Amino acid sequence: MIAFFKPNTSTFQIAEMQLHLKQIGFESYQIQKLGLCMIPNLKNPASLESFNFIESIKQIDTPYQLASLEFKKETNFSVKDVQIGTNFANIIAGPCSVESEEQIFETAAFLHKNNIKFIRGGAYKPRTSPYSFRGLGKDGLKLLAEAAKKYELRIVTELMDLSLLDEVAAYSDIIQIGSRNMANFYMLSELGKINKPILLKRGMQAKVNEWLLAADYVMSGGNEEIILCERGIRSFDPASRNVMDVAVIPLIQSLSHLPIIADPSHGTGDAFLVPTLAKASMVAGANGLMIEIHPNPSKALSDARQALSFDAFEALLADLETLKPAINKPIDATYSVAI
Ligand code: PEP
Ligand code: MN
Hints:
Layout: E1 2-5, H1 11-23, E2 29-31, E3 36-38, E4 54-58, E5 76-79, E6 82-85, E7 90-94, H2 101-113, E8 118-120, H3 138-150, E9 154-158, H4 165-171, E10 174-177, H5 185-191, E11 198-201, H6 208-219, E12 226-230, H7 248-255, E13 260-262, H8 264-268, H9 274-283, E14 288-292, H10 310-322, H11 324-327
Parallel strand pairs: 7-8, 7-14, 8-9, 9-10, 10-11, 11-12, 12-13
Antiparallel strand pairs: 1-3, 1-4, 2-3, 5-6
Helix pairs in contact: 2-3, 5-6, 9-10
The chain binds phosphoenolpyruvate and manganese (II) ion.
Phosphoenolpyruvate binds at residues 96, 122, 126, 178-180, 201, 231, 266.
């Protein structure tokens, strides 16, 4: 059960209510930024009747609460004037890893030319082998920032470890939480306390429930700016890197108010499959795409096989243009304040 407070409710009043709940055997969690208190096991609102500073009460029957469609109907926010959310679509593209000044500036110039607003690129990379290229670290973040500034792009980059939070937050516009960290609960809680949107990828083995509960971890800290990203799940079949779950897009939309984008690059692992799955995801209702591209895919230091060449990416953009009536959402709409 969620109790929503009237404006100007004091922390003293809330503490009194929490004490009462504790005395009758119920834990409660105050989420100050959202003006509410979560009382997970309370089923009968009668025990809250005497607290007249409660504005309304909601009973949500799913394990995830704040990420649920019952909690709210939609999530929309903006990142440096570009709208993101349930009513919009955004394209994020860039290399798997930031590799060099030349590579990242070439990519940024190309994105700018194609009117793309978001650049991705890992500076700290999660690699299966410790002997693989693991990113340029802070130097990579600096290169991203310089290229993004020159070409008016917003930065999406992965946070690998909580010890890097301040550094990564300083250089990014959206913090990516990768598949391997989706269940890093302590990290998720900390991300709830910051003022930066979170791109929350699906864990490679995560059930939908677990993924939405991960979003609740972030939201319960007070951060509501979350974008979910389907990136495929592991299966028994080595024929493709992952199984790209396109059906999860409308499924999530039937359960949650959070925007969901698709990453067909990791979802398939193969450049030749990426455009098809990108288009399928957009027609299935995705709020955007994250696509790995590289000026010279065969030379990429990570995920070379799935990187689209610039030509292939431009062909995908042209196809998406023809699919606009089916996509039916403004792509990378600019935020304008009504005067
Ligand atoms: C990535 O985006 O480069 C990445 C490592 O993705 P994932 O966490 O989905 O594997
Ligand atoms: Mn990658």
